[in-house]
Design goal:
This protein has 382 residues and is of the alpha/beta class. The protein is 47% helix and 10% strand. It has 19 helices and 6 strands. Strands 3-2-1-4-5-6 form a 6-stranded mixed sheet. Strand 2 and strand 3 form a beta hairpin. Helix 8 packs antiparallel against helix 9, helix 13 packs across helix 15 and helix 15 crosses helix 16. The longest helix is centred in the middle third of the chain and has 16 residues.
């Protein structure tokens, strides 16, 4: 969403909404500096007035703990953002916190990173016990955020943390900004907690704005979707990202038809949660004839179509796509029925499939559904 607001700032038709949108979108202190980094990606230019207003409105959201947690090194620091946007503190107490930020004197936050670094990294039995005690204290005191909890389930298991504390934390965790992809990755490392992870995932989807109409979701389940991570820093492989999106759409789209493809096309049962992930995974097979799945979706009809693939498509069997000849571009993929047609290439190769009437999205973002929703609301995909 930060990147989307940056694009809004480039266009006269959207600039008036930038300040309000930016202030609403920024929900974590590090996103203040992250947005400025995105804004300056192609070179340092003055921040627009609307951007300054948005940053200034967002800055007072964060208390000393939140600022200290994300006051990290790097080319753009939180103090830099404060100077750039000239934010006004709500009161004298907040003004005092901002002075500490400027002078680098914020109180060190009691986070899991700080607590664990104090224990040390060697594998002695004493330090192992200290790590367990540190994790258990953080859990009892509710000092672990949702993402930190999900990302550290394996570490807690290896440290021998009391399982009742972990289960309690999963049941009480705040899930407002956590999307299905994170729960899928967590379940890979902690399968015994899958039931609690699924319930937390459903809570996270409860207030998602609906995507109107019928959505055809097509997922590539050829072997290459399991062969690589989304990026070198990601804990998700390509299939897990696709499955997460399917789970998200199953809960938020008004109506959704799910398809998978490899050497054949499959209509997947409209299950929910991890059961949908498993249903998609069960179709795994060789080849990658995505055109067959697009043809199947076209027969059923839809208001929008979303294809998730790594771009490795083969020609469809011409005997199953009547009227198409080998070498015809339509044999790779029939044209979509709607202008709301999105081809998401999670591998972000330079060349791929899905041009012409398709909107081609290279790379992966957890906010891709928000992007599609915003694009359609502004008439960009009509």
């Amino acid at each position: 969403m930060l990147a989307l607001v940056r694009e809004m700032a480039r266009h006269k038709t959207h600039r008036a909404q930038v300040s309000e949108t930016l202030a609403r979108v920024i929900q974590r202190a590090d996103e203040l500096a992250e947005f400025v980094a995105i804004y300056w990606k192609d070179g340092r230019v003055p921040l627009s007035g609307q951007v300054k207003k948005g940053l200034a409105a967002a800055f007072p959201k964060f208390d000393e703990y939140q600022l200290a947690k994300y006051d990290r090194g790097g080319p753009i620091k939180l103090r830099d953002v404060l100077f750039l946007c000239h934010a006004k503190p709500r009161d004298a107490a907040q003004a005092g916190v901002w002075k500490k930020l400027i002078w680098g004197r914020l109180t060190t936050p009691d986070t899991w990173e700080v607590a664990l670094s104090a224990v040390g990294v060697s594998g002695t039995r004493a330090q192992g016990a200290d790590k367990r005690e540190s994790w258990e204290r953080l859990l009892r005191e509710q000092k672990l955020g949702a993402l930190a909890l999900l990302r550290n389930l394996r570490n807690m298991r290896e440290a021998g943390v009391d399982e009742s504390l972990v289960i309690g934390a999963l049941r009480e965790m705040k899930t407002d900004r956590v999307l299905p992809f994170r729960f899928i990755a967590a379940a890979r490392y902690a399968p015994k907690h899958e039931a609690d992870l699924e319930q937390a995932m459903f809570r996270s989807l409860k207030n998602q704005p609906p995507l109107p109409g019928t959505t055809a979701l097509i997922v590539d389940t050829s072997p290459s979707m399991w062969m690589a991570r989304l990026s070198k820093n990601s804990d998700l492989d390509r299939f897990e990202a696709a499955a997460g999106l399917a789970i998200l759409l199953r809960k938020t789209a008004e109506r959704v038809n799910v398809y998978a493809f490899n050497e054949k096309a499959y209509e997947v049962a409209p299950r929910q949660g991890f059961a949908l992930r498993d249903a998609l995974a069960a179709t795994k097979n060789n080849w990658s004839r995505g055109g067959l799945a697009v043809a199947a979706a076209n027969r059923d009809g839809y208001d929008r179509i979303i294809v998730i693939t790594d771009g490795q498509w083969h020609y469809s069997d011409t005997t199953t796509v009547p009227g198409y000849a080998e070498g015809d571009p339509q044999t790779v993929s029939p044209a979509p029925l709607s202008q709301r047609a999105y081809m998401i290439n999670v591998a972000s190769y330079k060349n791929g499939v899905g041009y012409g009437k398709w909107m081609h999205i290279d790379g992966w973002s957890e906010s891709v559904i928000e992007y599609i929703r915003a694009l359609e609301q502004t008439g960009g995909a009509n």
